[in-house]
């Protein structure tokens, strides 16, 4: 049986999908209290790792993506599919689930 090595450089999203590396969760609160793993909220900010070619229009042309590789983005809390590659966590989501580009 052949083994398949998957990493972020071998994954290419289709259509208007975006592959985002999830930022690390907050370790402690603003008051300085350390949070256990089960109390941490899923982060909503990440860095775009891969971008699909764009959604097809009715005439067959592709609509250009608004985000680029390397952009930091804010995305919907329950959007996308969580994927773990090695020690890194990613989320695969549609471009419409991205709320903003963070500077």
Describe the overall structure.
Its main location: cytoplasm. With 103 residues, this protein is mainly beta. It is globular. The protein starts with 16 loop residues before the first strand and ends with a strand. The model has no long low-confidence stretch (mean pLDDT 86).
| Number of DSSP E strands | 6
Shape: globular
Largest sheet: 6 strands, antiparallel
What percentage of residues falls in helices of 4 or more residues? under 10%
Protein name: Co-chaperonin GroES
Keywords: Chaperone, Cytoplasm
Main location: cytoplasm
Subunit structure: Heptamer of 7 subunits arranged in a ring. Interacts with the chaperonin GroEL.
Please describe the topology of this protein.
Blueprint: E1 17-22, E2 45-51, E3 72-75, E4 81-85, E5 88-94, E6 98-102
Antiparallel strand pairs: 1-2, 1-5, 2-3, 3-6, 4-5
Brief summary:
By secondary structure, the chain is mainly β. Helices cover 0% and strands 33% of the residues. Strand 4 (81-85) and strand 5 form a beta hairpin.
Q: What features would you highlight for this structure?
A:
103 residues; mainly beta; 6 strands; globular; Chaprnonin_Cpn10_CS; Co-chaperonin GroES; GroES-like_sf; protein folding chaperone
């Amino acid at each position: 049986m052949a083994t398949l090595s998957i990493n972020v450089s071998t994954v290419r999203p289709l259509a208007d999908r975006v592959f985002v590396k999830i930022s690390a969760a907050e370790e402690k609160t603003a008051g300085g209290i350390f949070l256990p793993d089960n109390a941490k909220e899923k982060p909503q900010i990440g860095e775009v790792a891969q971008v699909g070619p764009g959604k097809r229009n009715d005439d067959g042309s592709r609509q250009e993506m608004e985000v680029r590789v390397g952009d930091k983005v804010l995305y919907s809390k329950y959007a996308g599919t969580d994927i773990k590659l090695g020690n890194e966590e990613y989320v695969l989501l549609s471009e419409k689930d991205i709320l903003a580009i963070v500077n």
